[in-house]
């Protein structure tokens, strides 16, 4: 009958080493994953705001449109993208776009605090960051 196999001292010592290695690596890995999530959402929100500003600027440069039409279009686009427009600041320059002439520059700028668009409960790295999107186009009004 074969003798029972006993654990060697190196096997018993290795079990504790695995726990220590996991305790060191796991927090670093979790921090890396959360950092990638936040940075990805920051880029995504910036692109959404830029696209929305461009959409609002297209309305602003059209004939017969007013600043309220721009705000309505921007709010609808933000709602469709999942960003609550009550937390967003929309600025149209010049404020009275109906008085612009052909070739005048019209700017639409949208800003929001990153903490309002973050997927995580509270931002780790970008706590005070403001995300913005901006578009500039020439007026098409005669």
Compose a concise summary of this entry.
The protein has 142 residues and is of the alpha+beta class.
Q: What would your notes on this structure say?
A:
The protein has 142 residues and is an alpha+beta fold. It has one domain (11-138). 51% of the residues lie in helices and 16% in strands. The protein is built from three helices and three strands. Strands 1-2-3 form a three-stranded antiparallel sheet. α1 packs antiparallel against α2. The longest helix is centred in the N-terminal third of the chain and has 53 residues, at 9-61. It is rod-shaped, with a radius of gyration of 27 Å. The chain starts with 8 loop residues before the first helix and ends with a strand. The model has no long low-confidence stretch (mean pLDDT 86).
Identify the overall geometry.
rod-shaped
Tally of domains: 1
**Fraction of residues in H or I helices:** 40-55%
Mean pLDDT: 86
Structural class: alpha+beta
Structure summary, number of beta strands: 3
Reported for the largest beta sheet, the result is: 3 strands, antiparallel
């Amino acid at each position: 009958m074969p003798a029972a196999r006993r654990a060697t001292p190196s096997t018993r010592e290795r079990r504790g080493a695995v726990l220590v290695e996991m305790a060191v690596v796991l927090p670093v890995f979790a921090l890396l994953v959360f950092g990638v999530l936040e940075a990805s959402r920051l880029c995504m929100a910036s692109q959404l705001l830029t696209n929305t500003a461009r959409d609002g600027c297209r309305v602003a440069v059209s004939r017969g449109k007013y600043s309220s039409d721009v705000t309505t279009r921007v709010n609808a686009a933000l709602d469709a993208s999942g960003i609550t427009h009550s937390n967003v600041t929309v600025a149209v320059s010049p404020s009275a776009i109906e008085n612009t002439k052909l070739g005048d520059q019209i700017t639409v700028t949208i800003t929001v605090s990153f903490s309002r668009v973050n997927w995580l409960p509270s931002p780790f790295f970008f706590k005070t960051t403001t995300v913005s999107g901006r578009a500039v186009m020439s007026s098409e009004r005669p």
